[in-house]
Amino acid sequence: MTAQPGGTAHRTDVRDTRYGEIFLIRSEEGQLIGAVYNTTGLNDCPLDKWRALNPQELTTQFGVVAVQLNGPRFWTMDRITANAVGEVVSFGGLEARWVAELPIPPDLSDPDHPGARYYRDMVIKRETEFHFAAGRPVYEMLTPDGKTYVMQAYSHIVDDSLTMQSLAALGGQLQIPEGWQYRARTPGQELTLATAGGQAHVLQDELQNTYMQLVTP
After folding, report:
1. Which of 62, 71, 70 has the alpha carbon at shortest distance from 26?
2. What pLDDT, on the 0 to 100 scale, is given for residue 115?
3. Cα separations in angstroms, 166 against 16, 47, 72, 91, 139
4. Between the CA of residue 43 and those of 16, 87, 155, what are the distances in Å?
5. Distance (Å, rounded) from C-alpha 64 to C-alpha 67?
């Protein structure tokens, strides 16, 4: 199943709101691609419905190679504009909307290298703007080559004790690569994370919190 983007969505007051994502993974000419469906704006990802989802059953239902559940997660920005969204699908009674396409690197699911996804830049195809209000905290990962990745969501996939308030001290929990830095700061003006050319560069830490690269004009 694929969905052609055909609309725009705006969401306000999303900071610390819960959501979930379902990846419908297909194969195209040997490349695995995940169609990303997100619950934001449709529901708050009720835990009973989320925990009832069965990836194997969904794989059969939708006729795809695999299904991956990505959540629950919590947004860390204040406003979202998505300039290309698609169909709404019900997954076991949980509605989610198509928002992105994720090309999956061949080694990402290698059981011999479970940490291959962490602190690794990946490209996701979407058209979004994430807005962080002035005077509210942001959480960043700084790389040795001068890149800044801003946290877009924290996760309960690995550690369900994480809260927005605990993120300021998160750096002490993480096994950050040598030369990297985790930083919490409060910008004096609005910060915008925008995709460029329909692509976002993202990475995750080992708790599966997600960060997007800040690209300045």
Report:
1. 62
2. 63
3. 12, 21, 17, 32, 11
4. 14, 15, 17
5. 7
> Other CB atoms closer than 10 Å to residue 70's CB: what's the count?
20
Query: In percent, how much of the chain has pLDDT > 90?
Result: 84
Closest CA to 58 of 42, 35, 40, 74: 35
Question: Of 15 and 2, which is predicted with more confidence?
Answer: 15
- Listed in sequence order, the residues at least 6 apart from 1 whose beta carbon sits closer than 8 Å to its beta carbon are 24, 26, 35, 62, 63, 64, 89
User: Which contiguous run of DSSP H or E holds residue 16?
Assistant: none
- Give the span between the Cα atoms of 114 and 201, in whole angstroms: 21
Scored b (16 or more CB within 10 A) or e, 12-38 reads: eebbebbbbbbbbbbeeeeebbbbbbb
Q: Which two tokens stand for residue 172?
A: 């002490």
Q: Which of 45, 89, 41 is nearest to 64 (CA)?
A: 89
How long a stretch of residues is the chain?
217
The whole-model pTM stands at 0.93
d(CA 203, CA 122): 6
